[in-house]
Design goal:
Length: 150
């Protein structure tokens, strides 16, 4: 079970990599990237199709990330998630958040085999404080029904 403390521990250092950041500002991956930047995070985007996004150096793979990054948010389509997860484990990244609907039936097993701290089945926008827009409404509903991590 994912706890509030697990989420706080993932988000606390304000430094993380994000896999599958899009160059298109309308895409979810770009919006997450910008939201983190807006809230003061040092973000390392990963996208094999570009060398920079919004003026920030972009890495073509998780294995190319600089040393010292121990948190990774995975936004990839399901068919890519487990490969990125394995690559992160090999790189030594221990704290992983897989955006809801990006996990597969093997994701938890891979995480356990590699002793990773995994958060999955949660939308990152629900937890980057302060939560805004429609996500604030969704978070309130979850809280009312006792479905927010405690």
């Amino acid at each position: 079970m994912i706890t509030k403390k697990d989420i706080e521990n993932f988000l606390e250092p304000k430094k993380l990599a994000v896999a599958d950041v899009s160059r298109d500002p309308k895409k979810f991956g770009h919006q997450v990237f910008e939201e983190f930047r807006k809230k003061g995070y040092e973000v390392y985007p990963v996208n094999p199709k570009t060398s920079e996004i919004a003026g920030v150096e972009c890495y073509s793979s998780v294995s190319e990330l600089p040393a010292g990054i121990d948190r990774l948010l995975i936004l990839t389509p399901k068919q890519q998630t487990d490969a990125v997860l394995r690559e992160a484990a090999k790189k030594g990244i221990t704290r992983i958040w897989i955006q809801q609907f990006s996990e597969t039936k093997d994701t938890l097993k891979i995480s356990e085999e590699n002793h990773l701290n995994l958060i999955s089945k949660k939308c990152i926008f629900m937890f980057i404080d302060p939560v805004t827009s429609i996500h604030k409404f969704h978070r309130t509903i979850l809280k009312l029904f006792g479905r927010l991590p405690k």
